[in-house]
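User: Modeling request: complex.
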Amino acid sequence: MTMTKARSIASQCQAAYDVAPIIGALSTDAKNAGLVAMAQALKIHSAAILTANEKDLSYGRSAGISTALLDRLTLTPARIEGMADSLLAIRDLEDPIGEVLTAWTLENGLAISKVRVPFGVIGIIYEARPNVTADAIGLAIKSSNCVVLRGSKSAIHSNQIISNTLRDAFVSQGGPAGAIQLLEDTTHEGVTELVQMKQYLSLVIPRGGAGLIKRVVETATVPAIETGVGNCHVYVDQSADLKAAVSIAVNAKVQRPSVCNACETVLVHKDVASTLLPLLSTPLKESNVVIRGCEKTKVLLPDCELATEDDWYEEYHDLILAIRVVDSIDEALTHIRQYGSMHTEAILSENPEAISKFLNQVDAAAVIANASTRFTDGGVFGFGAEMGISTQKLHARGPMGLKELTTYKYIVKGDGQIRT
Amino acid sequence: MTMTKARSIASQCQAAYDVAPIIGALSTDAKNAGLVAMAQALKIHSAAILTANEKDLSYGRSAGISTALLDRLTLTPARIEGMADSLLAIRDLEDPIGEVLTAWTLENGLAISKVRVPFGVIGIIYEARPNVTADAIGLAIKSSNCVVLRGSKSAIHSNQIISNTLRDAFVSQGGPAGAIQLLEDTTHEGVTELVQMKQYLSLVIPRGGAGLIKRVVETATVPAIETGVGNCHVYVDQSADLKAAVSIAVNAKVQRPSVCNACETVLVHKDVASTLLPLLSTPLKESNVVIRGCEKTKVLLPDCELATEDDWYEEYHDLILAIRVVDSIDEALTHIRQYGSMHTEAILSENPEAISKFLNQVDAAAVIANASTRFTDGGVFGFGAEMGISTQKLHARGPMGLKELTTYKYIVKGDGQIRT
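Assistant: Request completed. Predicted assembly structure:
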């Protein structure tokens, strides 16, 4: 890293804020031309990006960071190609800006329309993965927002070259350079400073672990969207198709255990526990999943570890699955209400009443009947791209695509009306 | 006031949280029956409510609170009738809950629908006016939310009898008593405690002065919607119909100066300043409006006070108007961007290009051409009722009606799908 003093967070946020009206007025064609140039530039500068990434990786290795973290930090020619493809996919998405959401005329002749507009400047705080840098820039530009990125220190060389490359490409197509800011200050305190930049930012989105989300929520004065903490459950009702239940539960745990829509706890109705649990344990064992069961589970699967209260709260991000036998669907609902993170909850059942009860009563971004929790995803839902999965209820819930990065304003046209 | 210890904020929030699933499942008919009973109960208990109100007023008088505050605190038979009518008007509004916002089916057969659902428990913090107690309860119940109200200490007797009356009426129609909570703790610290009740509340809405909003934003961990701070401008372009401009500017300032959509500063294009300002000052003087003008204004209206930098930031809530002469529409836009509160901004102009530029570029909840700023209002917009006017961009912007008190969830129905 260079020894020059990092630009202040305030100066970078202000630089973005100052050009927000310019970005807000860009045509769809101008934004798309920028995205195409960005995708091309990533490919052209692929070798330089890999060199910068190698610097981060060697720092990471000498600092002894985990293999999982190193993997998320690693770029390859294929991953860079993937980033470029994502930018082109964003180019192909419909421009959300300017959409008239509704319009009506009052009796006094005032014509009101509710029109989709950008936020202005969005702050995004994320960990390790350098591909988020490109995705976030692409989504921000397509939704006519400026973006202030706060990536992690461990990825600073990769993030810098990616954001510089994309910014230069955007500028080459006439875009304002200020619109894309990667914070030079990557201190811990800097996160708190960023989320209090109320005069410049209209929204912050933290993407990362529970600790980061908590810190942002506790210190932010800028409106924030909480993302990605997923303590997801699969409830196997007594009426479930048990063969399908095994397949779904295993898929929800094993297919990609590190992500937020993976299943952490399976709740099993007592009437099917003795049949289901042995069926379930075999493929779980084959996939090296450690089971932490409640006492009733332990009776049926003596090899499993005994779960503690803490396990019900845990988002393992790992090949560990908690299992609890419940007396009824109501007990499952109570468990989910107490321990769930309002991300994704699934019921497996052939009983329409039970399904309906579960789907109506569970308070989560996504409630699923008879399918894997892994489907809660912007790509799967057809949003084309995703800025994270919201687990709060304000503004956006669940996968956030381009529309979720916009707000609206009321445009009112009169001919002299006054209020009496 | 009684000497019994106030119930804790946590216990009241939890009581609401515990019945949120019950409120969430109420039918439209059940909610409407509750609202009708509430309206009737207000009328039946009118005398008792006035007696309780008189207690607040006499405390207020002996504490020497201002006439304006006393006025806002005062209930009359007509105002109680108005509160009852508002509840019936809310009864007549369409039930927002359960609306399918969009639905689609994936290639793998998963059927996804995005359905409008309540938040759960909403906290509302407000000042003085006891009629807000009834409005907030009505809007919350109709949108299937529980509500925790934190009114001001100065209105505690009025608020208590109103909330008790409405809760009893709701319970008489089968509603759960826990759904309607008026905080017994009205300490300052209690506000901070309330806005950190993340385990129970999904949303807080502060309604009041800039100080309250700021305190909530700085301490809340529950997602919050900022409301009501309105530093609204009227920009008179050089092409404006000056007669209409005078009428609109006067209306925007004078018709109800204490509200957030009143105009605080008029910006006048230099080419029309010498004609407009004398025309404008006469009716303003007749309405006892004090003018605080920039130096150029002072030259044209020698009687006016000289504005300071602070005036441009001020939301007077009073018969005071700042006036500034600007060289161009761009200078007006810059002024609004610097000093405005993103509430309502108006341009008066006969030039379509200037109008279009203003409406597109000004970043505010409502942008208005050739009409008074006073029109930004849930009632005027046709929302039937209003929980405040949002000045932030997340979730709701501008007037908040029933729909703005809801969120959504994704309901996904499958038949065994797993992710590959």
